[in-house]
């Protein structure tokens, strides 16, 4: 699989230096199929390339601020991410432009490299990122985990089904809470529609949809469901009895 | 015939009681859930019947109801009782208006307690009550008023005004009943109660407007304080910049000196590079400049307050505000309340670490914004994430654990606000998503 490398940096000296570094990496790793397909100061060229080559495997090295262009690096990266979920993006930027949380939520970049760390350190970080990219290239397609998909506003989310402990809803709201080991996510949906999407799940009562695979035990004394990860969920005594009958889980 | 008249009396009474609950649920949707509706129906059916034998028993019934349903909400006693009295006043006054209208059009003499007249009274009563309730609801829904509802004094004034109105109204009714004034004077009672309501309304309005002025003044002072902090930050950066410029010139001078003296070792170049590495970049931008650009003054205020508080506690902070982030005005009060609680929790939790960290970001997407609060937590701390939003659950000693359950309540009452909680790699992250209206 050919890895296409795209560089967008408005400083010419730095851009040449990045090119030189990457060429050095290619030379020292002859077994890997990769090349610099685009190196530019103009973010527009990057978007043009994105449009004409939607199926390429891509690695981006992006600056954040382009004084010459109206487009900001973060907007460029956001649009890249929207078009290509698998693109690897590395930001290379000065410290004051670095807003890691915004980058993380919008772009999920592979890495950020701060320009202040010096050319040698930039080189070693860049090499690491290329290494990671190459290692991730192969197995990504073979992963076949079953996921539960939902949306918050326009943003799609994926969650592994076996990580979900239960869904919970509240009266008078149109939202549902997904509970997993270390995450609670609220999203607009109803338990009824989720129930049809996940037929394996058990509707313990009106406001609770449980993943039976993740139940470890039923604690009748404290009226609790205990999950494999030892988190718990309160449940009424009557519902507990029904659930027990349903699943015959030894206490 | 007797049974028929009882039946007609009972059904009108029942319909009136039901109307009372309809108005109540309309005024405060928080009361409205399936359980409460069933309770209301049961109480209406039983007590309307008992009312025939024991006059005034419905008063006891409503007290029982208040006690039962207050549990399911986060209202204070005053607000709960206020809602009750308001619903009572609306239904009772409209009932009187309906009767007086009927008397006006038919005259007292011709008026026998027939089924037809009761039906007309009930219909007029329903129409007027619902109209009034919708009017009040519409009035309170307007942005400028509802945002002040979170102020305790304003709520107190409104509550007391409603209670006084009720007392006056009841006294008037009792006096009329006691003196056995004929029905034809009902209109006069209505006029007197209207005057009382208007007077009390004006009084309450004056009190509230003076309180609002106070609130405005407070927020202006707060804005001024924020601006001062910003100016101080600018001054500090300016001094730093001047110092840097000074150092830089010195280095350039020594550089040119060493060039002239043909010093091949170029120590000064290395020195300059080292200095630049250490100083350029890290401290020379105005910290969180975009924070001061945030349009919503309520949200900006809470962020700046908590940022300063965190800095004073020596917490390492990183605040990022997306440039085009725009807080929807409709949700601004709710977001401010939620942020206040989440920041307090995050700061408190981070302080258990040797190196406390607090990160915050507002990120804009098309169609929604995200507000993210992230703090580090003490290692090996075992939190059952399913429990943190339960009332009274807390990992901290001597702490009520009320905060997050309040957040949950606000979130549940607004479908545009969504919450994500994550607990991973020693960090606790809360993401508040605010959807824009479609």
From TrEMBL, chain A:
<feature type="domain" description="HTH LytTR-type">
    <location>
        <begin position="148"/>
        <end position="249"/>
    </location>
</feature>
<keyword id="KW-0902">Two-component regulatory system</keyword>
<dbReference type="InterPro" id="IPR007492">
    <property type="entry name" value="LytTR_DNA-bd_dom"/>
</dbReference>
<feature type="domain" description="Response regulatory">
    <location>
        <begin position="4"/>
        <end position="130"/>
    </location>
</feature>
<keyword id="KW-0597">Phosphoprotein</keyword>
<keyword id="KW-0963">Cytoplasm</keyword>
<dbReference type="InterPro" id="IPR011006">
    <property type="entry name" value="CheY-like_superfamily"/>
</dbReference>
<dbReference type="Pfam" id="PF00072">
    <property type="entry name" value="Response_reg"/>
</dbReference>
<keyword id="KW-0238">DNA-binding</keyword>
<dbReference type="InterPro" id="IPR001789">
    <property type="entry name" value="Sig_transdc_resp-reg_receiver"/>
</dbReference>
<dbReference type="InterPro" id="IPR046947">
    <property type="entry name" value="LytR-like"/>
</dbReference>
<dbReference type="Pfam" id="PF04397">
    <property type="entry name" value="LytTR"/>
</dbReference>
<keyword id="KW-0010">Activator</keyword>
<feature type="modified residue" description="4-aspartylphosphate">
    <location>
        <position position="63"/>
    </location>
</feature>
<comment type="function">
    <text>Required for high-level post-exponential phase expression of a series of secreted proteins.</text>
</comment>
<dbReference type="GO" id="GO:0000156">
    <property type="term" value="F:phosphorelay response regulator activity"/>
</dbReference>
<protein>
    <submittedName>
        <fullName>DNA-binding response regulator</fullName>
    </submittedName>
</protein>
<dbReference type="GO" id="GO:0003677">
    <property type="term" value="F:DNA binding"/>
</dbReference>
TrEMBL record, chain B:
<dbReference type="InterPro" id="IPR036890">
    <property type="entry name" value="HATPase_C_sf"/>
</dbReference>
<keyword id="KW-0812">Transmembrane</keyword>
<feature type="transmembrane region" description="Helical">
    <location>
        <begin position="115"/>
        <end position="136"/>
    </location>
</feature>
<dbReference type="Pfam" id="PF14501">
    <property type="entry name" value="HATPase_c_5"/>
</dbReference>
<feature type="transmembrane region" description="Helical">
    <location>
        <begin position="12"/>
        <end position="31"/>
    </location>
</feature>
<feature type="domain" description="Sensor histidine kinase NatK-like C-terminal">
    <location>
        <begin position="333"/>
        <end position="430"/>
    </location>
</feature>
<feature type="transmembrane region" description="Helical">
    <location>
        <begin position="81"/>
        <end position="103"/>
    </location>
</feature>
<keyword id="KW-1133">Transmembrane helix</keyword>
<dbReference type="GO" id="GO:0042802">
    <property type="term" value="F:identical protein binding"/>
</dbReference>
<feature type="transmembrane region" description="Helical">
    <location>
        <begin position="185"/>
        <end position="208"/>
    </location>
</feature>
<keyword id="KW-0472">Membrane</keyword>
<protein>
    <recommendedName>
        <fullName>Sensor histidine kinase NatK-like C-terminal domain-containing protein</fullName>
    </recommendedName>
</protein>
<feature type="transmembrane region" description="Helical">
    <location>
        <begin position="37"/>
        <end position="69"/>
    </location>
</feature>
<feature type="transmembrane region" description="Helical">
    <location>
        <begin position="157"/>
        <end position="179"/>
    </location>
</feature>
<dbReference type="InterPro" id="IPR032834">
    <property type="entry name" value="NatK-like_C"/>
</dbReference>
């Amino acid at each position: 699989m050919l890895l296409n490398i795209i560089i967008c940096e408005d400083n010419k000296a730095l851009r040449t230096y990045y090119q030189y570094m990457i060429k050095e990496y290619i030379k020292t790793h002859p077994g890997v199929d990769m090349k610099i397909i685009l190196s530019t100061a103009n973010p527009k060229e990057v978007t043009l390339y994105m449009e004409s080559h939607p199926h390429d495997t891509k690695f981006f090295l992006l600056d954040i601020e382009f004084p010459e262009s109206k487009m900001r690096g973060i907007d460029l990266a956001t649009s890249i991410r929207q078009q290509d979920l698998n693109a690897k993006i590395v930001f290379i930027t000065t410290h004051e432009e670095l807003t890691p949380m915004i980058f993380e939520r919008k772009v999920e970049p592979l890495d950020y490299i701060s320009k202040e760390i010096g050319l040698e350190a930039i080189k070693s970080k860049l090499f690491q990122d290329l290494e990671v990219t190459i290692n991730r290239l192969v197995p990504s397609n073979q992963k076949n985990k079953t996921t539960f998909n939902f949306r918050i506003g326009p943003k799609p989310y994926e969650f592994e089904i076996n990580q979900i402990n239960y869904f919970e809803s509240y009266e008078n709201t149109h939202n549902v809470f997904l509970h997993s080991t270390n995450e609670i996510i609220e999203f607009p949906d109803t338990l009824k529609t989720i129930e049809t999407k996940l037929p394996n799940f058990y509707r313990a009562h009106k406001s609770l949809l449980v993943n039976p695979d993740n139940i470890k035990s039923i604690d009748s004394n404290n009226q609790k469901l205990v999950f494999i990860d030892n988190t718990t969920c309160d449940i009424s005594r009557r519902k507990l009895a029904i659930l027990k009958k349903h699943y015959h889980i030894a206490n | 015939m007797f049974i028929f008249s009882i039946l007609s009396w009972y059904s009108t009474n029942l319909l009136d009681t039901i109307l009372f609950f309809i108005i109540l649920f309309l005024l405060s949707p928080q009361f409205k859930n399936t359980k409460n509706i069933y309770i209301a129906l049961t109480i209406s059916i039983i007590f309307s019947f008992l009312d025939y034998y024991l006059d005034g028993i419905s008063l006891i019934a409503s007290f029982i109801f208040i006690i039962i349903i207050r549990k399911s909400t986060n209202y204070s006693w005053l607000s709960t009782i206020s809602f009750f009295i308001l619903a009572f006043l609306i239904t009772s006054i409209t009932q009187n208006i309906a009767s007086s209208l009927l008397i006006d059009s038919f005259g007292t003499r011709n008026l026998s307690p027939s089924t037809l007249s009761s039906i007309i009274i009930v219909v007029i009563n329903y129409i007027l009550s619902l109209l009034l309730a919708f009017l009040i609801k519409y009035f309170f829904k307007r942005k400028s008023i509802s945002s002040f509802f979170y102020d305790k004094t304003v709520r107190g004034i409104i509550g007391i005004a409603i209670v006084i109105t009720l007392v006056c109204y009841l006294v008037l009714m009792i006096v009329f009943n006691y003196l056995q004034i004929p029905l034809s004077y009902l209109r006069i009672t209505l006029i007197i109660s209207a005057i009382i309501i208007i007077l009390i309304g004006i009084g309450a309005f004056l009190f509230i407007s003076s309180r609002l002025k106070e609130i405005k003044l407070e927020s202006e002072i707060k804005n001024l304080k924020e601006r001062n902090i910003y100016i101080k930050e600018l001054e500090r950066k300016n001094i730093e910049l001047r110092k840097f410029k000074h150092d830089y010139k010195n280095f350039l001078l020594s550089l040119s000196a060493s060039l002239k003296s043909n010093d091949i070792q170029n120590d000064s170049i290395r020195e300059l590079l080292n200095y630049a590495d250490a100083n350029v970049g890290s401290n020379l931008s105005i910290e969180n400049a975009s924070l001061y650009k945030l349009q919503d003054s309520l949200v900006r205020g809470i962020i700046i307050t908590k940022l300063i508080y965190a800095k004073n506690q020596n917490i390492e902070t990183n605040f990022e505000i997306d440039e085009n982030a725009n807080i929807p005005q409709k949700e601004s009060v709710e977001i401010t309340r939620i942020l206040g609680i989440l920041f307090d929790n995050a700061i408190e939790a981070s302080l258990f670490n040797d190196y406390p960290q607090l990160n915050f970001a507002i990120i804009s997407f098309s169609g929604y914004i995200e507000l993210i609060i992230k703090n580090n937590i003490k290692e090996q701390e075992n939190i059952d994430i399913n429990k943190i939003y339960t009332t009274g659950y807390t990992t901290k000693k001597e702490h009520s654990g009320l905060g997050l359950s309040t957040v949950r309540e606000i979130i549940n009452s607004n479908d545009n606000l969504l919450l994500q909680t994550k607990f991973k790699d020693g960090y606790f992250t809360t993401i508040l998503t605010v959807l824009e209206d479609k």
